[in-house]
Structure to design on (415 residues):
């Protein structure tokens, strides 16, 4: 395993610079990635559609797609007959062509998933804890991956592209909020998660911020194709988010653009607070505890919450009011086409939160602001793990989204 394969990345690595005088092998690698990426984005593509979108010759596209089909990366659909000429044959990504592990490290729980080539979760392992420590995370990585690998056939194991870890940056900063003993989380300050995971696992390892991973998953597997620019909110133990501009995740100078959590908003009393102090699941946890309700079910399964009644309703309303302010503030700076809300909770909670947020936005002064659509995320509670799992897939097979969504001409065509 080369050092290049193991390099930690904060975004999908570019394939090759088209302006770099690529030789024939490099050009073919770029064009193959381009074809796979276009098929992934559009669901299916015929040879003529690929040729039209890329500017590649029909002969070149035919050669590439035959090669990808032979390698098991593409599969044929049923021919579509038109009025004139030969029937068009749509090509699809083969779900079994490649697999990757995605890991989400949360403040209360961790998830490990095995994702296939089209973004479907095949296997998963879930762990809960009072607060995350390196030894618990490394145990999940070693034992969880070994457990899933035992379920795979040898041929499937050979198709594992790597492990993508989605983790909050500076985990030690939230020790008080998660109830960790003083100093217990400081071990993270000197722990190199990427290096330790790379040494312990037999696959290439990639590392990315958890909220950025969730935003990337929404861009790739969710509502991304419909909205070239959107602000994204993921309500986890602590709320985080991301920004998509021109159909690409915008990370900013330090990689923290769209962090969302520190955004100042006013609570119901008029006091200015950070968004994360209102619109985070740890706040609901505290509200439940104050009402004498066991909050542990929040962390057992993000898809199986019960209706906690009045505390949940109060949390939804307060979270929606804070989110509405954050959305209007974001829209006043960038003309986002949408604000997308997702989180570590069931779909019915997400639907109620989005509806309440729409109602709260309508109560605000929107003069001079074009109201973005406020919609539900399409990926769901596993968005962070799926975003992590997409890192190895994109590194090995696909193109950076900034290239893909512009659908630029290939290096073969120049210009």
């Amino acid at each position: 395993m080369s050092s290049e394969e193991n390099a930690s990345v904060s975004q999908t690595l570019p394939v090759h610079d088209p302006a770099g005088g690529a030789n024939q092998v490099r050009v073919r690698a770029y064009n193959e990635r381009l074809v796979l990426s276009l098929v992934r984005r559009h669901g299916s593509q015929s040879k003529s559609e690929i040729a039209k979108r890329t500017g590649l010759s029909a002969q070149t596209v035919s050669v590439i797609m035959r090669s990808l089909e032979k390698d098991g990366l593409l599969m044929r659909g049923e021919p579509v007959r038109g009025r004139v000429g030969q029937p068009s044959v749509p090509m699809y990504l083969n779900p079994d062509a490649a697999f990757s592990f995605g890991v989400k490290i949360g403040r209360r729980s961790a998830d490990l998933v095995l994702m296939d080539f089209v973004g479907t979760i095949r296997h998963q392992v879930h762990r809960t804890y009072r607060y995350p420590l390196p030894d618990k995370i490394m145990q999940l990585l070693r034992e969880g991956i070994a457990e899933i690998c035992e379920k795979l056939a040898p041929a499937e194991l050979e198709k594992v592209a790597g492990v993508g870890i989605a983790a909050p940056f500076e985990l030690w900063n939230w020790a008080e909020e998660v109830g960790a003993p003083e100093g217990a989380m400081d071990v993270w300050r000197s722990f190199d998660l990427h290096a330790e995971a790379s040494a312990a696992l037999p696959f290439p390892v990639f590392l990315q911020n958890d909220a950025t991973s969730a935003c990337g998953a929404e861009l790739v597997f969710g509502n991304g194709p419909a909205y070239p620019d959107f602000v994204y909110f993921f309500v986890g133990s602590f709320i985080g988010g991301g920004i998509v501009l021109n159909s690409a995740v915008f990370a900013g100078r330090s990689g923290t653009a769209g962090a969302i959590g520190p955004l100042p908003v006013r609570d119901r009393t008029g006091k200015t607070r950070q968004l994360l102090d209102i619109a985070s699941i740890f706040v609901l946890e505290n509200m439940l505890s104050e009402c004498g309700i066991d909050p542990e079910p929040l962390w057992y399964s993000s898809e199986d919450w019960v209706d906690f009644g009045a505390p949940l309703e109060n949390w939804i309303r307060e979270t929606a009011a804070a989110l509405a302010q954050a959305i209007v503030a974001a829209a006043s700076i960038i003309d986002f086409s949408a604000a997308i809300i997702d989180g570590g909770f069931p779909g019915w909670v997400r639907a109620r939160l989005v509806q309440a947020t729409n109602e709260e936005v309508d109560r605000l002064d929107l003069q001079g602001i074009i109201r973005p659509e406020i919609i539900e995320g399409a990926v769901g509670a596993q968005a962070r793990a799926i975003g992590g799992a997409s890192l190895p897939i994109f590194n090995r097979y696909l193109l950076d989204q900034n290239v893909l969504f512009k659908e630029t001409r290939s290096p073969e065509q120049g210009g």
Observations:
- Residues 1-23, 402-415 have pLDDT under 50 and may be disordered.
